[in-house]
Amino acid sequence: xxxxxxxxxxxxxxxxxxxxxxxxxxxxxxxxxxxxxxxxxxxxxxxxxxxxxxxxxxxxxxxxxxxxxxxxxxxxxxxxxxxxxxxxxxxxxxxxxxxxxxxxxxxxxxxxxxxxxxxxxxxxxxxxxxxxxxxxxxxxxxxxxxxxxxxxxxxxxxxxxxxxxxxxxxxxxxxxxxxxxxxxxxxxxxxxxxxxxxxxxxxxxxxxxxxxxxxxxxxxxxxxxxxxxxxxxxxxxxxxxxxxxxxxxxxxxxx
Length: 255
Fold this sequence. Notes:
Helix content: 25-40%
Order of helices and strands: HEEHEHEEHEEHEEEEEEHHH
Radius of gyration: 18 Å
Oligomer: single chain
Distance between the termini: 43 Å
Shape: globular
Largest sheet: 7 strands, antiparallel
Protein backbone atom coordinates (compact mmCIF):
# COMPACT_ATOMS: atom_id res chain seq x y z
CA UNK A 1 0.00 0.00 0.00
CA UNK A 2 1.37 3.40 -0.98
CA UNK A 3 1.40 5.93 1.86
CA UNK A 4 1.67 9.70 1.72
CA UNK A 5 1.90 12.18 4.57
CA UNK A 6 -0.41 15.11 3.96
CA UNK A 7 1.62 18.26 3.61
CA UNK A 8 0.54 20.89 6.03
CA UNK A 9 1.35 24.38 7.19
CA UNK A 10 0.74 23.36 10.82
CA UNK A 11 3.69 25.21 12.34
CA UNK A 12 2.06 27.44 14.90
CA UNK A 13 2.70 31.14 14.90
CA UNK A 14 3.59 33.07 11.76
CA UNK A 15 3.64 31.34 8.40
CA UNK A 16 6.61 31.57 6.07
CA UNK A 17 6.48 33.46 2.79
CA UNK A 18 6.63 30.09 1.00
CA UNK A 19 3.60 28.85 2.97
CA UNK A 20 1.58 31.93 2.02
CA UNK A 21 2.71 31.74 -1.60
CA UNK A 22 1.60 28.10 -1.86
CA UNK A 23 -1.87 29.04 -0.64
CA UNK A 24 -2.24 32.15 -2.80
CA UNK A 25 -1.02 30.72 -6.11
CA UNK A 26 -3.22 27.60 -6.26
CA UNK A 27 -3.86 25.85 -8.70
CA UNK A 28 -0.35 26.72 -9.93
CA UNK A 29 0.85 27.09 -13.48
CA UNK A 30 0.18 24.36 -16.05
CA UNK A 31 1.35 24.28 -19.68
CA UNK A 32 -1.37 24.29 -22.29
CA UNK A 33 0.46 21.48 -24.13
CA UNK A 34 1.03 17.88 -23.09
CA UNK A 35 4.01 17.45 -20.81
CA UNK A 36 6.21 14.81 -19.22
CA UNK A 37 7.30 15.18 -15.59
CA UNK A 38 10.60 13.51 -14.67
CA UNK A 39 10.91 12.95 -10.94
CA UNK A 40 14.59 11.98 -11.26
CA UNK A 41 15.66 15.19 -12.97
CA UNK A 42 13.09 17.29 -11.04
CA UNK A 43 11.85 18.89 -14.23
CA UNK A 44 9.34 18.60 -17.03
CA UNK A 45 9.28 18.90 -20.81
CA UNK A 46 6.45 19.90 -23.11
CA UNK A 47 5.47 17.36 -25.76
CA UNK A 48 3.25 17.22 -28.79
CA UNK A 49 0.23 14.99 -28.21
CA UNK A 50 1.72 12.51 -30.69
CA UNK A 51 4.93 12.38 -28.63
CA UNK A 52 2.96 12.01 -25.41
CA UNK A 53 0.96 9.12 -26.88
CA UNK A 54 4.12 7.00 -26.93
CA UNK A 55 4.07 6.95 -23.10
CA UNK A 56 0.38 6.23 -22.53
CA UNK A 57 0.06 2.47 -23.07
CA UNK A 58 -0.64 0.63 -19.82
CA UNK A 59 -1.33 3.82 -17.89
CA UNK A 60 -4.60 4.82 -16.25
CA UNK A 61 -6.05 8.23 -17.17
CA UNK A 62 -7.58 10.40 -14.46
CA UNK A 63 -8.98 13.92 -14.78
CA UNK A 64 -6.76 16.60 -13.26
CA UNK A 65 -9.02 19.59 -12.62
CA UNK A 66 -6.87 21.65 -10.26
CA UNK A 67 -3.32 21.50 -8.96
CA UNK A 68 -2.77 17.92 -10.17
CA UNK A 69 -2.39 19.48 -13.62
CA UNK A 70 0.66 21.48 -12.47
CA UNK A 71 4.23 20.19 -12.90
CA UNK A 72 5.15 21.95 -9.65
CA UNK A 73 2.47 20.10 -7.68
CA UNK A 74 3.21 16.74 -9.28
CA UNK A 75 6.90 17.03 -8.39
CA UNK A 76 5.89 17.99 -4.84
CA UNK A 77 3.47 15.07 -4.47
CA UNK A 78 5.31 12.23 -6.18
CA UNK A 79 9.05 12.77 -5.58
CA UNK A 80 10.49 9.97 -3.45
CA UNK A 81 7.26 7.98 -3.31
CA UNK A 82 7.01 5.96 -6.55
CA UNK A 83 9.30 3.76 -8.63
CA UNK A 84 8.43 4.99 -12.13
CA UNK A 85 9.87 8.53 -12.38
CA UNK A 86 7.73 9.60 -15.35
CA UNK A 87 4.27 11.20 -15.23
CA UNK A 88 2.42 12.05 -18.43
CA UNK A 89 -0.20 14.81 -18.65
CA UNK A 90 -2.33 15.65 -21.70
CA UNK A 91 -4.83 18.49 -22.32
CA UNK A 92 -8.53 17.85 -22.95
CA UNK A 93 -11.76 19.82 -22.97
CA UNK A 94 -14.55 18.67 -20.68
CA UNK A 95 -18.08 19.59 -21.79
CA UNK A 96 -21.04 20.18 -19.49
CA UNK A 97 -18.96 20.88 -16.37
CA UNK A 98 -16.98 23.68 -14.75
CA UNK A 99 -14.14 23.77 -12.23
CA UNK A 100 -15.18 25.67 -9.10
CA UNK A 101 -13.92 26.29 -5.58
CA UNK A 102 -14.62 23.55 -3.03
CA UNK A 103 -16.24 24.28 0.33
CA UNK A 104 -13.09 23.51 2.29
CA UNK A 105 -9.62 24.75 3.08
CA UNK A 106 -6.77 22.41 2.17
CA UNK A 107 -4.05 21.45 4.60
CA UNK A 108 -1.67 23.82 2.80
CA UNK A 109 -4.02 26.76 3.10
CA UNK A 110 -5.61 26.94 -0.35
CA UNK A 111 -9.27 26.64 -1.29
CA UNK A 112 -9.04 23.70 -3.70
CA UNK A 113 -11.03 22.82 -6.80
CA UNK A 114 -13.96 20.55 -7.42
CA UNK A 115 -16.08 19.77 -10.45
CA UNK A 116 -19.78 20.54 -10.93
CA UNK A 117 -22.16 19.99 -13.80
CA UNK A 118 -22.75 23.10 -15.90
CA UNK A 119 -24.60 22.51 -19.19
CA UNK A 120 -23.21 24.54 -22.06
CA UNK A 121 -19.79 25.14 -20.50
CA UNK A 122 -16.57 23.61 -21.82
CA UNK A 123 -13.58 23.72 -19.47
CA UNK A 124 -9.90 23.13 -20.28
CA UNK A 125 -8.55 20.45 -17.94
CA UNK A 126 -5.92 17.73 -18.11
CA UNK A 127 -5.62 13.97 -17.98
CA UNK A 128 -2.85 12.59 -15.81
CA UNK A 129 -1.79 9.13 -16.99
CA UNK A 130 -0.58 7.02 -14.04
CA UNK A 131 0.91 3.63 -13.39
CA UNK A 132 -0.99 1.60 -10.80
CA UNK A 133 1.45 2.68 -8.07
CA UNK A 134 1.22 6.34 -9.09
CA UNK A 135 -2.57 6.12 -9.05
CA UNK A 136 -2.51 4.69 -5.52
CA UNK A 137 -0.36 7.61 -4.39
CA UNK A 138 -2.68 10.09 -6.06
CA UNK A 139 -5.59 8.53 -4.17
CA UNK A 140 -3.67 8.72 -0.89
CA UNK A 141 -2.87 12.40 -1.46
CA UNK A 142 -6.54 13.31 -1.95
CA UNK A 143 -7.87 12.09 1.43
CA UNK A 144 -10.33 9.70 -0.20
CA UNK A 145 -13.39 9.13 1.94
CA UNK A 146 -13.02 12.34 3.92
CA UNK A 147 -11.82 15.23 1.76
CA UNK A 148 -12.69 13.77 -1.62
CA UNK A 149 -14.35 10.78 -3.19
CA UNK A 150 -14.17 9.24 -6.63
CA UNK A 151 -16.68 10.27 -9.26
CA UNK A 152 -16.81 9.63 -12.98
CA UNK A 153 -17.59 11.53 -16.15
CA UNK A 154 -18.47 9.77 -19.41
CA UNK A 155 -15.60 9.71 -21.87
CA UNK A 156 -18.07 11.13 -24.41
CA UNK A 157 -17.91 14.43 -22.47
CA UNK A 158 -14.23 14.76 -23.46
CA UNK A 159 -12.79 16.21 -26.65
CA UNK A 160 -9.08 15.93 -27.34
CA UNK A 161 -6.55 15.55 -30.12
CA UNK A 162 -6.55 12.40 -32.23
CA UNK A 163 -3.57 10.80 -30.43
CA UNK A 164 -5.23 11.29 -27.04
CA UNK A 165 -8.65 10.16 -28.29
CA UNK A 166 -7.00 7.05 -29.71
CA UNK A 167 -5.38 6.29 -26.34
CA UNK A 168 -8.81 6.60 -24.71
CA UNK A 169 -10.35 3.88 -26.88
CA UNK A 170 -11.98 1.28 -24.67
CA UNK A 171 -12.61 3.78 -21.85
CA UNK A 172 -16.25 4.46 -21.03
CA UNK A 173 -15.65 6.88 -18.16
CA UNK A 174 -12.91 8.86 -16.45
CA UNK A 175 -12.26 9.20 -12.72
CA UNK A 176 -11.95 12.50 -10.95
CA UNK A 177 -11.79 13.65 -7.33
CA UNK A 178 -14.95 15.37 -6.11
CA UNK A 179 -14.89 17.38 -2.89
CA UNK A 180 -17.03 15.65 -0.28
CA UNK A 181 -18.19 19.05 1.00
CA UNK A 182 -19.32 20.16 -2.45
CA UNK A 183 -18.71 23.64 -3.87
CA UNK A 184 -18.52 26.78 -1.78
CA UNK A 185 -21.53 28.96 -2.63
CA UNK A 186 -21.38 32.74 -2.78
CA UNK A 187 -24.74 34.43 -3.33
CA UNK A 188 -26.26 30.96 -3.85
CA UNK A 189 -23.90 30.09 -6.75
CA UNK A 190 -20.58 28.28 -7.21
CA UNK A 191 -17.49 30.34 -8.04
CA UNK A 192 -15.28 29.20 -10.92
CA UNK A 193 -11.49 29.21 -10.81
CA UNK A 194 -10.34 32.13 -12.92
CA UNK A 195 -7.05 30.32 -13.56
CA UNK A 196 -8.85 27.49 -15.38
CA UNK A 197 -9.86 28.44 -18.92
CA UNK A 198 -13.47 27.80 -19.94
CA UNK A 199 -15.96 28.72 -22.64
CA UNK A 200 -19.53 29.91 -21.91
CA UNK A 201 -19.17 30.07 -18.15
CA UNK A 202 -22.45 30.37 -16.25
CA UNK A 203 -21.04 31.52 -12.91
CA UNK A 204 -18.66 34.26 -11.75
CA UNK A 205 -14.95 33.46 -11.59
CA UNK A 206 -12.38 34.58 -9.04
CA UNK A 207 -8.70 34.16 -8.30
CA UNK A 208 -7.48 32.13 -5.34
CA UNK A 209 -6.32 35.31 -3.63
CA UNK A 210 -9.75 36.91 -4.08
CA UNK A 211 -11.48 33.87 -2.61
CA UNK A 212 -9.12 33.65 0.36
CA UNK A 213 -9.60 37.37 1.02
CA UNK A 214 -13.37 36.87 0.92
CA UNK A 215 -13.11 33.92 3.29
CA UNK A 216 -10.95 35.95 5.69
CA UNK A 217 -13.55 38.72 5.71
CA UNK A 218 -16.43 36.29 6.22
CA UNK A 219 -14.64 34.62 9.14
CA UNK A 220 -13.76 37.96 10.77
CA UNK A 221 -10.00 37.82 10.27
CA UNK A 222 -7.94 40.90 9.51
CA UNK A 223 -6.04 39.30 6.62
CA UNK A 224 -5.50 36.08 4.69
CA UNK A 225 -2.33 35.46 6.67
CA UNK A 226 -4.14 35.87 10.00
CA UNK A 227 -6.89 33.47 8.89
CA UNK A 228 -4.41 30.81 7.75
CA UNK A 229 -2.40 31.06 10.96
CA UNK A 230 -5.56 30.40 12.98
CA UNK A 231 -6.89 27.68 10.66
CA UNK A 232 -3.58 25.80 10.53
CA UNK A 233 -2.23 26.38 14.04
CA UNK A 234 -2.76 22.68 14.83
CA UNK A 235 -4.66 19.72 13.40
CA UNK A 236 -7.83 20.34 15.36
CA UNK A 237 -7.92 23.98 14.27
CA UNK A 238 -8.05 22.97 10.62
CA UNK A 239 -10.94 20.54 11.21
CA UNK A 240 -12.83 23.14 13.24
CA UNK A 241 -12.35 25.81 10.57
CA UNK A 242 -13.76 23.56 7.85
CA UNK A 243 -16.69 22.50 10.01
CA UNK A 244 -17.61 26.13 10.59
CA UNK A 245 -17.18 26.95 6.91
CA UNK A 246 -19.43 24.09 5.84
CA UNK A 247 -22.12 24.94 8.40
CA UNK A 248 -23.24 27.88 6.25
CA UNK A 249 -25.18 26.89 3.11
CA UNK A 250 -24.19 30.06 1.25
CA UNK A 251 -22.15 33.21 1.79
CA UNK A 252 -23.91 36.40 0.74
CA UNK A 253 -21.15 38.76 -0.26
CA UNK A 254 -19.98 40.61 -3.36
CA UNK A 255 -16.91 39.10 -4.98
